[in-house]
Structure prediction request, 88 residues.
Amino acid sequence: MLNHNNQKTAFSKRMLKNGILALIAFLLSISFFALADFGGLDFLFVGVYAGLKEPMTLLSGFSLVVNLAMAVFFIEQFLSVKRKRIDL
Prediction:
């Protein structure tokens, strides 16, 4: 019983950590896309950049959802590689 509670606590802490990391990655990617035109990268990220310039457009909602999905995907891939390294 005690071991089961420890596993639940570890799982909830890991979920919280993953959520916080995904949120940080999301915010960093938004700031990167907002500053992308200074580096001449706006042709790559024109969807997100235009969405941030005009927040009422459908493009902004779609680009922010895609941006969040990419952030979560990369964080999950990083954590899975880290887990595999620990398991070895």
